[in-house]
Amino acid sequence: MVRTALAAVVLLGGLTAPAFGQVKIEWKFKEGDKFYVEEVSSAKNKISVMGKDIDEVQKTTMVQSFTVKKATATEVVMDQKVESVNVESKGGFGGGTEKFMEKMQGSKFTVTLNPQSGKVTKFEGFKELLKKLGEGNEEVGKLLEAFLNEDTLKKGIEDAFSFLPPKAVSKGDTWKVEGTMPMGPLGSFKKNTTYTYDGKAEGGEKIDYKLDMSYLPPKGEGALGGLFKVTKGNLKVNGAKGTIIFDPEKGRMVSNNVSMRVVGSLTMDVMGNEIVLDMTMDQTSTSRILSRAPKIEE
After folding, report:
1. CB distance 68 to 291 below 8 Å
2. Of 8 and 231, the one with more pLDDT
3. For residue 235, which of 216, 263, 213, 260 has the smallest C-alpha distance?
4. Is residue 169 part of a domain?
5. Which residue, 98, 153, 184, 232, has fewest beta-carbon neighbours within 10 Å?
6. Other CB atoms within 10 A of residue 195 CB
7. What is the DSSP string of 249-294?
8. How far apart are the first and last CA of the chain?
9. How deeply is 185 buried, as exposed, middle or buried, from its count of CB atoms within 10 A (0-12, 13-18, 19+)?
């Protein structure tokens, strides 16, 4: 009987534990934990409109903190705060992008997450952000809401938490995640991301990924009551790829590096006038998760 019981334990263990050589990569949330996400994004854009070329180089450094308020098997609630924003920009349309972005500093949100899927089930604080950015000006608030919406912020959070494999993986295993990247009145991109587990690397487990992205034009009457509308678009994303390092012991991402090039054109109706924008945008982003604020840790 003892031998039978031992055999049953071994069998059950084989059914529930990862097979030899496999790694279980999953987030581990604990109430009271606080971590910081530092993202450094660089963009080199060239836009041609009405025979004029406009070049822009921009670097944005944003630090956000996340504090876990509740953590169960089915729900994680976190307080999110934009700790700092620094924008360095040269060229462009001269529209004061730096001041607009930096006004996000100090903004607070509450995020409710499904820990199994990484999907955001509730997001609070967006209305307060619009009020802050619009400084109480209703018209400015409407303009901001046309280009910055709640779905954009939610999708950004989901991208950070929904990339992990559904089960233990061995080197060379792949999995896919579908999603969208909303761009307000400019339309959106449908994303199909293929992840590949590449084994151990310095700092954790290495995951490489490639993105297949297709442009979708916006629906509806357009922004600002139809004064601005994209009528046609031909945008393509080339060479979109990245690398993630994940620490399975801490249950936390270490870093994420991604790069892509967007090329093509948008045809817009602006107050009855047709305008064509030809563009080339080279973008890179490096994110890392830290236990302390960067200025303290480095």
Report:
1. no
2. 231
3. 263
4. yes
5. 232
6. 20
7. TTTEEEEEEEEEEEEEEEEEEETTEEEEEEEEEEEEEEEEEESS-H
8. 59
9. middle
